[in-house]
Amino acid sequence: MTIVVGFEGSANKIGVGIIQDGKVLSNPRRTYITPPGQGFMPSDTARHHRSCILDVLQEALEEAKIKPQDVDCVAYTKGPGMGAPLLSVAIVARTVAQLWKKPLLGVNHCIGHIEMGRLITGAENPSVLYVSGGNTQVIAYSERCYRIFGETIDIAVGNCLDRFARVLKISNDPSPGYNIEQMAKKGKKFVELPYTVKGMDVSFSGILSYIEDMSHKMLSSGECTPEDLCFSLQETLFSMLVEITERAMAHCGSQEVLIVGGVGCNVRLQEMMGVMCQERGAKLFATDERFCIDNGAMIAQAGWEMFRSGQVTNLQDSWITQRYRTDEVEVTWRD
Amino acid sequence: MVSPMLQFKLCVPFPSSKEAEIAYNSLCPDAEPRKGGVSKTLSVTDNILHVNWKADEARILRVSVSSFLEHLSLVVLTMDRFGPPLDNP
Q1: Which residues of A does the annotation place in the binding site for a divalent metal cation?
Q2: CB count, 10 Å around CB of A258?
Q3: Nearest residue of chain A to residue B73 (CA atoms)
Q4: How is the quaternary structure described (chain B) (predicted)?
Q5: What pLDDT does A14 receive?
Q6: What distance in Å separates the CA atoms of residue B85 and residue A40, rounded to the nearest whole number?
Q7: Count of domains forming chain B
Q8: Which of B16, B25, B27 is the mutation pick for testing A, counting most A CBs within 10 A?
Q9: Which end of chain B is more exposed for a tag (fewer CB within 10 A), N or C?
Q10: Domain that includes residue A234, residue range
């Protein structure tokens, strides 16, 4: 029996999750929500995390009905992410690990998403589409490494959606992406946007500049509605993601797709991916917002796998890092 | 001539050397940015955590010290809430 506590706070969510041998005992989370039209800045986000992390930790322990003595390992996000929030969360993880005399484990955030997706869906060896506010990658496992087959060459797909939401002053509560998804359902007219797939990679910054520019003109002249723009942007971005995912599957001969990351709970993206999978006779795996969006349990789950395979992080090596690629991690827990 | 560097010295007493050591280990791993124009060294003697800063500019020193104090306060709050240190693993 192995119990791992996971701390996540690399972006605007702060979460603490507790995993016991594949079972989620608790997974509380708080989100730092900014006013419409504003993004979240590193220092404000870190302050938010510091103000509630101890409450979230206590909530996690109470809900899981465990005591610090029962914990086997304390896992935290080492990176990638925003420096200030990562550091605040790491400091608490280091302190409780020492107070409780438990080993510490630094986890790659992307690996956390993948392992949580595998645990929840039961997908064995999927091609993974990891889509969030900070990352966009198509990943497949081979030879002890999650290899990146394709990725964004500029901004993440979620960043493109978030920043478009700011232009239209769409609410950030519960998340800009969720609100765009709801508005897109009422869209009627498809506005053509640039489509920028570059081989296995994608680019979103040009699409964002284009839609930022033309939205004011088209909205003020009444040529289209905000709902039409949400719809057109989603259709364009998600088509690109489906295309590169399909290409990765063809390369790997893979018959499974797993979607992880905050954008992964978008039902329209899941639908479009589902159509592609059906045509190929492949299977689609996705999770809901509890596990798609950043959470503590995903760090606990990746930590659980790492800890069981014999890894720990010494305190002096427990520095955080804003850049930490998925393929830098040696996957010691898979064949 | 090289201009003299600004220095700042902080001593933080803890209830015992155990807590001072924990605070040291929690606050030590992350170095200041290499080209940031500020350096910070931590050490522990008995129950006291010592921190020494050297910086080129007061502005940069202030940012580093105030961010350190935020983190120190977070460590102390964590100890208050989830301490005292357990004796046996």
Answers
A1: 109, 113, 130, 294
A2: 27
A3: A50
A4: Component of the EKC/KEOPS complex composed of at least GON7, TP53RK, TPRKB, OSGEP and LAGE3; the whole complex dimerizes.
A5: 98
A6: 35
A7: 1
A8: B25
A9: N
A10: 125-291
